[in-house]
Specification:
By secondary structure, the protein is an alpha/beta fold. Helix 1 (about 40-55) links the parallel strand 1 and strand 2. The chain starts with 12 loop residues before the first strand and ends with a strand. The strands form 5 sheets. It has a 3-stranded mixed β-sheet, covered by helices on one side. It has a 3-stranded mixed β-sheet with strand order 3-4-5, with helices on both faces. The protein is globular, with a radius of gyration of 17 Å. The chain has one domain (about 15-270): L-arginine/glycine Amidinotransferase, Chain A, CATH 3.75.10. It has helices at about 40-55, 100-110, 145-155, 195-205, 210-215, 235-245, 255-260, and strands spanning about 15, 60-65, 80-85, 85-90, 115-120, 130, 135-140, 160-165, 175-180, 185, 210, 225, 230, 250, 270. Helices cover about 25% and strands about 20% of the residues. The model has no long low-confidence stretch (mean pLDDT about 95). The structure holds arginine. Arginine binds near residues 175 and 262. Arginine binds near residues 261 and 262.
Amino acid sequence: MTSLLHRTARRRRYLLCPPTHFAVRYAINPWMDPGQPVDRAAADRQWRRLCAVLRSLGHEVLTLDPLPGLPDMVFTANGATVVGGRVLVARFKHAERAGEATAHRRWFDRAGFRPVHTATRVNEGEGDLLVAGRRILAGWGFRTTAPAHREAQHLLGLPVVTLRLVDPRFYHLDTALTVLSDDQIMYWPPAFAPTSRRLLASLYPDAIRAGETDAAVFGLNAVSDGRHVVLPRAATGLAAQLHTHGYRPVPVEMPELLKAGGGPKCCTLELRDA
Ligand code: ARG
């Protein structure tokens, strides 16, 4: 079906980190099994393809230097949240990832972003804090904490809508919800507590609701520029729904990164200068 709606893309700047040291060495979410082999060369090909796709859509891709001993560093979305050039650097829940926050802090300081704050509460960046127009949708329940939401609201200057995640497979907000444009989202309602579901339904009556099959292949871990939506190829039902709503689904394949519980969005941190 072709939609009559015309969606407008806005050019973005993204920070990505190559999976040079990618591995599944510990298990901090249900997707991770350290016994399962990881093909790093394949991860690298999948990641390069993601960069090429983002660039082909007209976006600027900057890179963070990968560091040995930080196998999840490819997931830059967890390192910070950036709004109007203001940066809130993450504070990771698990010690295994703590060093990533230091690397992000250094990168933002050197890149000239001001101000740059480091969160004092557990805060996993855009994994749980999704900027949606003039508000931030914020998840808690597994990683980022509710006090971190208040800190983000204060330091980033946007009102925060607090949402409770309840399914451990969807441990970060960006695994259960995608911001498609300033005023539209897609999400899988059962990942949220009943009050949060009601809140989302009232804020976004026209949202796209994903089915479980698409959510389970990480279809909601998607990157939208307002028109093009880069999402896992396996999420075919969601791609069809997006098309009906006037968006252009852009499928990518990242099966290696899924072994760590990650997808295209986890690898993509948006640098919002304005
Ligand atoms: N293994 C990583 C973790 O559990 C994956 C992070 C995925 N990132 C995301 N934005 N959801 O922390």
